[in-house]
Design a protein that fits this description.
mainly alpha; 2 helices; 3-stranded antiparallel beta sheet
């Protein structure tokens, strides 16, 4: 007959739980592109961690590029008005 200590039982419970929660807590993988953004393969979509759009999420890279262009246009318009 096998005898298990409390430590063994605790170990047998904690290992599977830690593997389960590690998957949940692990940040999504993927390197950042030149805009500081990347595709999120796990949840879908495209989001930015750095740059002018940091913290924003988009449905696609195309949508992000449109927003970036709009920001640049707005910045250029503001700069040209200040020069007057």
């Amino acid at each position: 007959m096998w005898r298990t200590s409390r430590h063994e039982v605790l170990f047998l419970i904690l290992i599977p739980l830690s593997l389960l929660y590690a998957n949940i807590a692990w940040a999504h993988g993927g390197g950042l592109d030149e805009f500081g953004c990347h595709h999120n393969r796990k949840h879908g979509g495209y989001h930015c961690h750095q740059g002018p759009l940091a913290g924003k999420s988009f449905l696609s890279k195309t949508e992000m590029m449109g927003m970036l262009k709009a920001l640049e246009t707005k910045k250029d318009a503001s700069a040209s008005q200040r020069k007057r």
